[in-house]
């Protein structure tokens, strides 16, 4: 079988799986949500650094937005998906842009739902009280248990190697 035939077969198979799950490509069903994990930042592609703003644009270009963990089950499902499907670069794992951001002094998700500052999604000691903190990242703190936490970003234009999109 030629490489063109294999590529076409893979593409058709991916589309069928996406359609069967209710999610269109490049999204996959993860615990009932349509999720797309994109790792194309400075670690893999130094010519394409991604700020939170650029990551959000990329999600919107694929008819989605940065993921909002407004349901604790979604964080668990996405963490399991990451553990099973993405080889992470270091013991700390990838750092993912997600839809947490601070607007007018209030933390919220890109879907406009409030983000509870006392939620256990935050790494202890977070979010930072720094006036420059505006966006959130998902980081893996404990590789053994796969626990991921939200941390506040202290520089609005800092790059991150990956981001997670969600389509409603």
Backbone shape: globular
- The total number of structural domains is 1
* Estimated share of beta-strand residues: 25-35%
- Helical fraction: 25-40%
What is the C-level CATH assignment? Answer: Alpha Beta
**How many DSSP E strands?**
8
Main traits of this protein?
168 residues; alpha+beta; Mannose-Binding Protein A, Chain A; eight-stranded mixed beta sheet
Notes on the structure:
- The chain has 168 residues and is of the alpha+beta class.
- The chain is 26% helix and 26% strand.
- The chain has a single domain (32-167), classed as Mannose-Binding Protein A, Chain A (Roll), CATH 3.10.100.10.
- The chain has helices at 3-21, 52-61, 72-85, and strands spanning 28-30, 33-38, 65-66, 95-103, 106-109, 135-142, 147-152, 162-167.
- The chain starts with a helix and ends with a strand.
- Mean pLDDT is 78; it is low at 1-19.
Annotate the secondary structure layout.
Layout: H1 3-21, E1 28-30, E2 33-38, H2 52-61, E3 65-66, H3 72-85, E4 95-103, E5 106-109, E6 135-142, E7 147-152, E8 162-167
Parallel strand pairs: 4-8
Antiparallel strand pairs: 1-2, 2-8, 3-8, 4-5, 4-6, 6-7
Short characterization:
The chain is 26% helix and 26% strand. With 168 residues, it is α+β, with helices and mostly antiparallel strands.
């Amino acid at each position: 079988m030629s490489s063109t035939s294999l590529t076409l077969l893979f593409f058709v198979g991916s589309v069928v799986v996406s359609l069967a799950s209710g999610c269109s490509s490049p999204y996959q069903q993860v615990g009932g949500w349509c999720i797309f994990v994109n790792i194309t930042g400075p670690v893999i592609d130094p010519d394409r650094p991604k700020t939170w703003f650029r990551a959000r644009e990329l999600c919107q270009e694929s008819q989605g937005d940065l993921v909002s963990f407004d349901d604790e089950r979604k964080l668990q499902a996405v963490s399991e998906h990451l553990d099973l499907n993405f080889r992470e670069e270091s013991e700390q794992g990838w750092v993912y842009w997600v839809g947490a951001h601070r607007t007018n002094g209030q933390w919220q998700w890109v879907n406009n739902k409030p983000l509870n500052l006392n939620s256990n999604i935050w790494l202890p000691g977070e979010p930072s009280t720094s006036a420059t903190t505006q966006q959130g990242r998902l980081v893996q703190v404990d590789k053994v248990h796969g626990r991921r936490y939200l941390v506040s970003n202290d520089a609005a234009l800092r790059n991150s190697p990956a981001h997670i999109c969600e389509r409603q």
